[in-house]
Give the backbone structure.
Amino acid sequence: MNQTAVAEKEKRPVPRAGEGPGGTGRHTLGTRLNRWGWAFALLSIVLISIFVFAPMVGALVMSFQTGKGVNAHFGGLTNYARLFSDRTVATALSNTLIYLVVQVPIMLILALILSVILNDRNLKGRTFFRVAIFLPCITSLVSYSLIMKNIFSNDGIFNQMLIHTGLPPILWTTDAFWARILIIIAITWRWTGYNMIFYLSGMQGIEPSIYEAAEIDGANAVTKFTRITVPLLKPVILFTTITSTIGTLQLFDEVQNITQGGPANGTVTISQYIYNLCFKYTPNFGYACAVAFIVVVLILLLSMVQMKVGGKENQ
Amino acid sequence: MKKKTLTALKYLFLIVASVLSIFPFFWMIISATNSAREVNAGKLTFGAHLLDNLANLFHSDLAFGASLANSVWIAVITTVLALLISSVAGYGFEIFRSRARDRVFNILLLSMMVPFCALMIPLYRMFSAAGKAGFAGVGLNTMFSVIVPYICTAFLIFFFRQNTKSFPKDILEAARIDGLNEPGIFFHMYVPVMRSTYAAGAIVTFMTSWNNYLWPLVALQEPRKRTVPLILSAMGSSYTPDYGMIMAGIVLATLPTGLIFFFMQKQFVAGIVGSVK
């Protein structure tokens, strides 16, 4: 306690009121404030420990157990060994990676282009366009999934429009390839505006004089974008990449409500498989926890890679 | 000449993007006023079935009315508790900084990286065990079980901590000289000054709770305890979904967040972006 109080003193120059001229007076105020600091933070530390860290450890322990319910017993690496021969895990992983590799870049680039255009003060109807593109963010994931499911159903409004223009209809929900495209379209619709908001707010921190100077030097729009906008927005781009990656690795609501993972696991994701293992098939909590740890490891690995790449180019 | 084509392309791109963004809303609103058969036939004009759809919605055996009440209670209670607990914590971590507390804060931040699918099973067993142990009101199928895991998130603590940095610190010294204790300072000085931060935090928390799907799906299996997203999802996955009725339900489910967005746009955006700066 005393040590932290001293450490605190070195770091925190703020509350000095009431400090006596002598050493002892200082010390008691520091200790008192330090106690208040812990008191203010305590409940949150307890709650996050109970509802995040303890379950996390619980899941790790369970991932080494086999057997159902009260009969669960230590099974060593059985569950982890089973992961490698489970074809649904392979399908779910490859689906998730497809969403990640295709959808995240498309969405983020789209959001960047839109924000560059919408950052222009002389653009007419700027507010309208901003609101229109941000609007999908007000819908809940279940709601928009159902709207998309209806629009893109095999005999839905989209296919009716295609037929109307003389094109053949697309089997969105019965063809695995198109079902994946549909999931990608849906997520892009919902989240592009969300990411755009981050870029727009980041761009407000860029001095217009930088662009003016570049224009005097003869830089065109593309050069200004690649040499000024993107490097200065790098921290925000990194942030959106990491959050989108974490979100995609946990994808559940959309797939569950648009395709139910079908056709024949064609769109199934890891989160959905975990849900099915626990609440749809005969419950196998131990194995489901082992599957969940794939996501944990992937999030850690990908975040580290992204921070490394983003950090390096920053220098 | 070249510049003109570029400008034209720019507007064309924006118009296409906006139309694509808005069309699903347009479709949702139009369909809410049409019968199931008209929706399936692709009718693109307003119809006369809005009241029928609403009546079907509230009289369906899926208890939409009860779910609406459940969702409101859950979202409101979660928001109030989350704001209180997280703002106290955010204030505590920023105003009384110490090396040990900074380290604890960084550990708490790690909880944002933990995927929910890894927590879902232990949480489910935890609440199930609590219910079986006879603690009434804290087991599965209770409001408690869907509220309590969300009343303290690292995101919200971080959000408050970031915004506390702009809180005028000399007020604190003055208040301490006046003999106000620390909780007094928090409730009488901090909370009123940080009103707009609270508004932004409230919007994000309310929306997250209102729209939450996976955990309520796991924790609330009893039909009358379910929330709006669960009921909509169940309606959508039936063999012959009545899309007129479903769209009316979606309109109702989107109304609160839509109203908040249109009336409090500034705080809405601040709540989303606020923590990055």
